[in-house]
Insulin-induced gene protein (Tursiops truncatus), 131 residues
Amino acid sequence: MRCVAVFVGINHASAKLDFANNVQLSLTLAALSLGLWWTFDRSRSGLGLGITIAFLATVITQLLVYNGVYQYTSPDFLYIRSWLPCIFFSGGVTVGNIGRQLAMIGLTVQVTPGKQFTCFRAADWEDDHLC
């Protein structure tokens, strides 16, 4: 939950903070995004997911702007804003953490009155532990 709150804070900072130029804003958001990854994830897969999402989402956004589907008032990095990949990166890390948390949740099922067992829905468990 804290990861989502930090992501919302980074998103809010990109809209509300005033900097002298876009390079300062982009570098600040890049540091905050890497800080989000370092604080809540620290895995190679999380870093790879964030970079992949940032790259693909930036390319898709550039294609949409290039084809006239979407438009920025003052683009500064090809067709988009320079801070946008930082937002995509932190969003990818946040969604990856949410997915990891959901995969780890166990489901408790009542079999007979007074007896319970926990059923895990994760790929790492052996077949006899799965529902």
Remarks:
- The two ends are 27 Å apart (CA to CA).
- Confidence is low (pLDDT under 50) at residues 124-131.
- The first helix runs from residue 2 to 16.
